[in-house]
């Protein structure tokens, strides 16, 4: 195959990209994105601050620009993200307790009803665990509404759009030996045992010198899949863009039948949120990097 998306589709998977609405007018960017990928995540446009800037006033202008571009170009869409401690609008940051809990529920209902039946996977909850060795939940205004906030989010999401796969998404959960990975595993196991509706786990996979790729990533993906959920690599970027490491990640996904696909977190290095890491598959001029060829050959 000659594109990443077509190559991934040979095994029933997708190869996706994070898209920024304000870059779609850049023809180099839009040409690569349209050609190479068959799944799209909005890099920021479906987040809470973008979709509900004032309480009760939803705004899908930017989100729909990404969504409509994706559909017009034949791509599926991952929704990102409904409940998160970060990129909350000011009105939500100032809420707590039962008022915040209700606002979270209202937000999930408002966004999911707008896209009902149109989203392949939703990142219902993002980044709820703490970094480091504690294995604890991250302290946040949402966590302070009660430990059950995550399962309430998933139950709300299932009712709002039964057709979407519902994912929990996090970073620094790729290495099986990390406490954060084990904490996320215990939560997903508990949710499956108690019938909390969760369908998938997203591994952001922002690999860098502080949190490098480890070959036990495949074990992690296998162990989560064995709990009865799908897995996905949702925000891949690799500091320095080692071709070998990119190929290893692709092979890890391909080795796990429940690995749905891979999303890279931007098109060119200059589009990356960590552009100084040159972590992506395309150079700033739109040419393919060695990592691109390694990924295409591995798929
Ligand atoms: C990042 C975006 O790439 C940036 O443009 C924005 O300023 C901050 O958020 N984990 C996530 C993503 O789930 O939503 C983040 O995206 C990167 C880390």
From TrEMBL:
Residue ranges crossing the lipid bilayer per the database entry: none
EC numbers: 3.2.1.8
Enzyme class label: hydrolase
Keyword Hydrolase: yes
Keyword line: Carbohydrate metabolism, Glycosidase, Hydrolase, Polysaccharide degradation, Signal, Xylan degradation
Chemical reaction(s) catalysed: Endohydrolysis of (1->4)-beta-D-xylosidic linkages in xylans
tRNA-binding among keywords: no
Domain GH10: 1-298
Residue numbers annotated as active site: 235
Record family assignment: Belongs to the glycosyl hydrolase 10 (cellulase F) family.
Listed name of the protein: Beta-xylanase
């Amino acid at each position: 195959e000659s594109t990443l998306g077509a190559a991934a589709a040979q095994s029933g998977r997708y190869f996706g990209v994070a898209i920024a609405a304000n870059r779609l007018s850049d023809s180099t960017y839009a040409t690569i994105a349209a050609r190479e990928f068959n799944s799209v995540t909005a890099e920021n446009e479906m987040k809470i601050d973008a979709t509900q800037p004032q309480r009760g006033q939803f705004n899908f202008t930017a989100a729909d620009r990404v969504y409509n571009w994706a559909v017009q170009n034949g791509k599926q869409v991952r929704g990102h993200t409904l409940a998160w401690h970060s990129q909350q609008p000011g009105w939500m940051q100032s809420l707590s307790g039962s008022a915040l809990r209700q606002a979270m529920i209202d937000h999930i209902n408002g966004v999911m009803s707008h896209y009902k039946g149109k989203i392949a996977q939703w990142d219902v909850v993002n980044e709820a665990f703490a970094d480091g060795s504690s294995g604890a939940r991250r302290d946040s205004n949402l966590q302070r509404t009660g430990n059950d906030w995550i399962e309430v989010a998933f139950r709300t999401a299932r009712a709002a759009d039964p057709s979407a796969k519902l994912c929990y998404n996090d970073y620094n959960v790729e290495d099986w030996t990390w406490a954060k990975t084990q904490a996320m595993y215990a939560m997903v196991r508990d949710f499956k045992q108690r019938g909390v509706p969760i369908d998938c786990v997203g591994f952001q996979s922002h690999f860098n010198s502080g949190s490098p790729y480890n070959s036990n990533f495949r074990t992690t993906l296998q162990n989560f899949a064995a709990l009865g959920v799908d897995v996905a690599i949702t925000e891949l970027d690799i500091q320095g863009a080692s071709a070998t490491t990119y190929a290893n990640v692709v092979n890890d996904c391909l080795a796990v039948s429940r690995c749905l696909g891979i999303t890279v977190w931007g098109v060119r290095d200059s589009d990356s949120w960590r552009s100084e890491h040159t972590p992506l598959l395309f150079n700033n001029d739109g040419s393919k990097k060695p990592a691109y060829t390694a990924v295409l050959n591995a798929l």
